[in-house]
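Can't paste images in this forum, so I'm doing it all in text. The chain is below; anyone willing to post the predicted structure tokens underneath?
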Amino acid sequence: MFDLLVRGGVVVTPAGCERCDVGVEDGLVAAVEIDLAGDARETVDARGLHVFPGVVDAHVHCNDPGRADWEGFAHATRALAAGGATAFVDMPLNASPPTLDGASFDLKVAAATGIAHVDFALWGGLVPGELDRLDELAGRGVVGFKAFMCPSGSDDFPPVDDDALHAGMARAARLGLPVAVHAESAATTSALAARAVAEGRTSLRDFIASRPVTAELEAIERATALALETGCALHVVHVSTGRGVRLVAAARARGADVTCETCPHYLALDEEDAEEIGLLAKCAPPLRSRDEREGLWDALLHGLIDLVASDHSPSPPALKLGDDAFAAWGGIAGGQTLLRVMLTEGPVRGLPLETIAELCAAAPARRFALAGKGSLASGADADLVLVDLGHEAALTAEELLSRHPVSPFVGRRLRGRVTRTIVRGSTAYVKGDMVTPPGGRLLRPLPARSTEARS
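Text version of the structure:
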């Protein structure tokens, strides 16, 4: 007898979509077959719905501990579950303290334990200073180390220069873990920002102009060169332009172990939208021109982008007010809308559902060695998302489960509604409500052939 049987849904697999039943035992996928024989303790009718593997969001800022009033694990994971995520990787900054050593790792795990509604892994931080902290973080189980090549916006998370990045990459390579970089040139962005502010040019358009595409391209070139020299695995986060993606592809062709991600807001919005939306659309790198957005889509459709992540970076609404775009907080709250935006924008561009599942679930789980996640194969964690693709409606603030229900996508028509999110065989979310107590577990990266990815 199965513990759970999901009947009659259209299951999204790497081979395509097919109406199948999914049987679950002991929190794992036991079988995926047409008209699966057998009984179950619980049966879910998925007729008329698509069954996706749970989203693995590799780029989330919960701001916890220390800034839970900005978001916190409880609210963030409610929003993630409502958006179809069953696992995520939390970034080391914007928490206080940031995750820079073993002790701060332990504080973050304590803040999430018994609070998180979905499974979680952690990034460690790479900042200038004592490299032995990376060994502490690796021993605790981070998926890798995040570094900024320009100011991060948080004084307690300083950027790295090339020497510090080289040293950190060399240590990360010895530890067998990747380095993720925010790739924008500090020299370019700082100089342009200082000039604009001094001249009183502080609109959102001025902020966007202060972070040109060339600043991103130059930083990607430096990061990939250092990765090749040190043998470090590199992941370039939130690439905003197709030209940046093609630099990553070129480095990969030269032998670098390098991947990149983009985010739904770069695929769905451009700088004209930013002017209309206002500071809710401020992020770094900024939203680009329509032509750059088209170039990003071209790279995605040619298979050059490895994964899509939300870069969920919420803040209190007051930090998004005023006339000075340089002083406003830069971050987009997008954890709940990642899958819906991809299901809205992707199919009209010819992106198959199985490719969306690959980009949002399988690829991040594989890149960051979260074994058992991102797949509906037999033996994988039973992380399932039931989606009504026939539903299309304007997003409302009332739907959002973040601490502060704001989003640049409010008012936009989005396709697909997550009706149920199942984490390791247990339903976490159903049609607007969390239905079980928080049960998220810490995930640690394990070799791909390992069968367990939980503490």
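The radius of gyration is 21 Å. The chain has 13 helices and 18 strands.
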